[in-house]
Design goal:
Blueprint lengths: L1 H24 L4 E6 L5 H17 L2 E6 L4 H14 L3 E4 L8 H9 L4 E4 L13 E4 L2 H15 L4 E7 L5 H14 L5 E8 L4 H11 L10 E4 L2 H13 L9 E6 L2 H8 L5 E4 L5 H12 L7 E3 L4 E3 L5 H6 L3
Parallel strand pairs: 1-2, 1-3, 3-4, 4-5, 5-11, 6-7, 6-8, 8-9, 9-10
Antiparallel strand pairs: 10-12
Helix pairs in contact: 2-10, 5-6, 7-8
Bound molecules: alpha-L-arabinofuranose.
Alpha-L-arabinofuranose binds next to α2 and β9.
Length: about 325
Amino acid sequence: MKKLLTIALAGLTLALASCGKTEKAAGKIRVGFSQIGAESDWRKAATVSIQEEAKKRGIDLIFSDAQQKQENQIKAIRSFIAQGVDVISFSPVVATGFEDVLKEAKAAGIPVILFDRKVTVSDDSLYACYIGSDCTEEGRRAARWVVENVGENAGIAELVGTVGSGPAIERKKGFEEIIKDHPGLKIIKSQSGDFTRSQGKEVMEQFLKSPERDQITVLFAHNDDMALGAIQAIEEAGKKPGKDIIIVSCDGVKEMFKQILAGKANCTVECNPMIGGQLYDVVEGYMRGEPIPERVESEEGVFDSKNITQEVIDQRGY
Ligand code: AHR
C-alpha cells in the first residue's frame, strides 16, 4: 500500500513539474515590476497601464508596490531575481542607491528596464533601457511657457518633487536653464512637496505666510498633484489661482485640465504615464531575440487654455 502511494505521489510530482515546463514552453513571459506607490494621479494611471497591458498580452506580471520606500524596491528586485523572472522593470523612487541590486540583476543575466524615471549609476550597462519622458525638457518647456506668456518679470515659487528623484532634479535643471537668460524671472521660494497633493497644499500655505508672499506671481510645481493642492491653499489665502498667481506644472492629468479650463491654473507640460505598451513591446522583442533599445521615448505636448476644451477633457483617460 505504502509502495503504491509512493508511486502515485511520484507520478503527481512529475505531472506537476511537466505542467510548469509546458507553461514556460508555451511562451508565458514573466516580468517583475516594482512601482513606487500611489503618490499622484499620474502614478495611479501608470500602474493601470502596466497591469492592464500585461493582462491584454498574457504576460505573467509580478507587481510590487514599494509604498514610497527605496528599501522595498530593493527587496522586490532581489525577490524577482530569486524567482528568475525574464525581465525586471521599475520606477526608481530616487535616482541613487540602486547600484548593488542592479549588479546582482546583471550577474543573474536578467535585463532591467527603467520605467519613467532614471537612476544615477557609475556604469550605465547596469540597466538595459530607459522608457519614459525627458524630464529636463519638461522643465525647459514649463519655463519657456512662462517666458512667452508671463513676460520678463516674475517672483517664482517652486514646488519641488520628491527630493533626490530623477524628475525633481531634471525638471528643476531644465527650468533654471531657461530662466537664467531672463534676469527678471527669479525663483524666490523653493521647497519639496514630495509629489503629493497634501504636501503641495501645506508647502504653498507656508509660502503664502512667508515675508515674500506678495512677490509670488508664478508657481512652478513639478507635478499636477502638488499644483492642485496649491490651488486650494491660494484660494484659502483669499487669492485667485490662475490670475493673482499663474500656475504651471507637469503631468497633464484630467483634474489639472479641468482647473485650466476653469481659469484656476494656466499650463501643464505633459508627461505620459500610459507607457505600459511600450514596456512590453521591448520585453516581447527581447524574448524573440531582438536587441533591447537603450532609449524609448514617449510623445508629449504642452497644454493651456489655447488647446484645452471640454471635448479634450472628456477624451482624457486619466
Ligand atoms: O516620475 C513621474 C512623476 O512621478 C510624475 O510627474 C509625478 O506625478 C509622479 O509621482
